[in-house]
Design goal:
The complex is a heterodimer of chains A (243) and B (304).
Chain A (H helix, E strand, L loop, with lengths): L1 H13 L2 H26 L10 H35 L2 H5 L5 H28 L9 H28 L3 H17 L10 H5 L2 H9 L5 H27 L1
Chain B lengths: L4 E10 L2 E11 L4 E5 L6 H8 L7 E6 L2 E2 L4 H5 L2 E4 L11 H11 L4 H14 L15 H13 L5 E5 L7 H14 L4 E5 L3 H7 L2 E6 L2 E6 L8 E6 L5 H5 L4 E6 L4 E6 L5 H11 L3 E6 L4 H9 L6
Parallel strand pairs in B: 3-8, 3-9, 6-7, 7-8
Antiparallel strand pairs in B: 1-2, 1-4, 4-5, 9-10, 11-13, 11-14, 12-13
Helix pairs in contact in B: 3-4
């Protein structure tokens, strides 16, 4: 039933203009970033010293893609619960023979499916370089994995804030706040705050994958953070029934 | 036969304030039960609990023998629910929405198309099947909501204000539809439009401050009461002297209100009046109207 619901959520999302606006703008901005990066890489000006094009794109293009996903995800997730609570369509799920876990994972996977389309974009753009140069596929796979894990994590945070409020705007604001906080915690100036707080920031973990380092500690970081917020969301859905 | 729906001592409190208090509902096949009450009496809360949208703080709900709290999946498969606001996805087409609703209720894939076609025909939605729900009028949206709740042929159908926003012609169609549904299922309707309940239901429960203050038939028929118009009115004592009359009141000069013994035969009374030569002109049975029941029950008065 989870998959049925996930498929329904995804198809429904693809029927909204929002999805297509996001996809169009995403592709436009990423292509722009690609051209910019190529110009810097091949131009006369001395670019940063990098081992090769793949490595350069994995930092520039995928770095930008991560920021893009950070801004897009709350727009997608705020619809999932907040809007359903507000319009009353949540009743359709709560009175259907589905468990809360099925409802949550169905909605979550629906968002993830859409994010996979976004992740395909920088991948396709990078692969379009194949005729001109040899690509490091291992590195590309690592970065793509990083971006996928990052998206899963952002979606979990967005979903949690979506279960908190009946106002989609508030849900989006909460997710943006949390995501930006998790970004800023990684600043070097905050290093003396303590290793744990600093380690909570995503950019450092993502950077390892962008550099081609697939370390289990980074994978565990993304998975734990996702599970933590999904757990909170499940708790919130149950509380809503009981409160 | 076990009741399709049975709640025992169903209660719900918000922050210690009781919204529904010890509600017992029993619904059998073929029944249309009306849930009445002033605004804020706990009707919607009670219905939301029965549908599993809200967890009760106490009591038990059984749907077709399945406990809603310990076996929610099996119980909810027998349930169709239309909340106060129809739960629609405005960006979908009617046919897509109904197909999704069928999938959510775990209908086998090969039966979905036929079920959707059938329900659209029953609810008069064939003409708008590929229109966006957002663009439908309120009456049509309401019908899509009803369609969604009966699509999977549930045994218990719960409709919260189902006739809201319908025009008189649609109203009649929906009433006929609800009667038809009750042939194979049990239906609960909540409304504050009394004539609506009177037209449809065979039983009512009236809620006041979360507790049931009246539960029973719409016109309790323990004692028959009549209004008679006499051309040559006798003295009041002469009327009370009749064997089948327990109580008599003079309403106007010529109008009398008579209450009969439970086994009394009305034709007998008529014969007596004629035999006395009082000149019977009018004889109307006085059923207790739903409005009277409602006003008396919610004002805390006892019903005769």
């Amino acid at each position: 039933m989870t998959w049925t619901l996930a498929r329904m959520e995804f198809t429904r999302l693809m029927r909204t203009p929002l999805a297509w606006v996001i996809l169009a703008f995403g592709l436009f901005l990423l292509s722009w970033r690609l051209l910019e990066a190529l110009e810097a890489f091949t131009g006369l000006t001395i670019g940063p010293a990098t081992p090769g094009l793949t490595s350069y794109l994995s930092l520039q293009l995928y770095g930008f893609a991560a920021v893009l996903i950070l801004f897009i995800t709350p727009l997608l997730t705020m619809r999932q619960f907040s809007e359903a609570f507000r319009s009353g369509s949540y009743c359709l799920l709560s009175s259907a023979p589905l468990s809360l876990l099925q409802i949550l994972s169905g909605k979550y996977l629906g968002v993830l499916a859409f994010q996979m389309l976004l992740i395909l974009m920088p991948l396709a753009l990078s692969l379009s370089m194949m005729p001109g140069t040899a690509l490091d596929f291992g590195l590309l796979a690592a970065t793509t994995l990083g971006l996928a894990l990052l998206s899963a994590c952002f979606a979990a945070i967005g979903i949690y804030f979506s279960t908190l409020s009946e106002t989609p705007g508030l849900a989006a604001a909460g997710s943006y706040g949390t995501l930006l906080l998790l970004t800023l915690l990684g600043q070097d100036s905050l290093r003396n705050l303590g290793g744990l707080l600093h380690g909570l920031a995503w950019p450092a973990h993502y950077l390892n994958l962008q550099l081609g380092l697939v370390r289990s500690i980074d994978l565990i970081y993304f998975l734990l953070l996702s599970l933590f917020f999904l757990g909170l969301a499940l708790y919130q859905l149950d509380r809503r029934r009981n409160a | 036969m076990e009741a399709l729906l049975k709640t025992t001592n169903l209660s719900r409190a918000y922050n210690g304030h009781k919204v529904v208090d010890g509600l017992d509902i029993s619904l059998g096949r073929g029944e249309i039960l009306g849930l009445l009450g002033p605004n804020g009496a706990g009707k919607s809360t009670a219905l939301r609990m029965i549908c599993g949208d809200l967890a009760p703080t106490g009591g038990e709900i059984r749907i077709c023998g399945h406990d809603l709290l310990s076996d929610p999946i099996a119980a909810k498969q027998q349930l169709g629910y239309l909340p106060e606001r129809p739960p629609l996805h405005p960006d979908q087409r009617v046919i897509e929405f109904l197909t999704d609703a069928a999938r959510l209720h775990r209908m086998p894939g090969n039966r979905i198309d036929a079920a959707v076609q059938q329900v659209m025909q029953r609810c008069g939605l064939e003409a708008v099947d590929s229109r966006l729900i957002r663009k439908l009028s309120k009456g049509f949206q309401q019908r899509v909501g009803i369609a969604q709740s009966i699509l999977h042929q549930p045994s218990v159908i719960i409709l919260d204000e189902p006739t809201d926003g319908l025009d008189p012609a649609q109203l009649r169609e929906v009433r006929a539809l609800i009667r038809q549904l009750a042939e194979s299922a049990g239906v609960i309707i909540s409304s504050h439009i009394l004539p609506e309940i009177q037209a449809l239901c065979n039983r009512v429960i009236i809620l006041q401050d979360g507790a049931s203050v009246y539960s029973g038939d719409i016109s309790p028929a323990e004692a028959v009461s009549l209004k008679v118009l006499l051309a040559r009115p006798p003295k009041l004592q002469q009327l009370t002297a009749l064997p089948m009359v327990t109580e008599a009141k003079q309403l106007h000069t010529d109008y009398f209100y008579l209450k009969l013994t439970p086994q009394a035969d009305v034709s007998e009374l008529a014969a007596q009046i004629v035999a006395q030569g009082w000149g019977l002109r009018e004889l109307t049975p006085e059923t207790l109207s739903l409005e009277q029941i409602f006003m008396q029950a919610t004002a805390g008065e006892q019903i005769a």
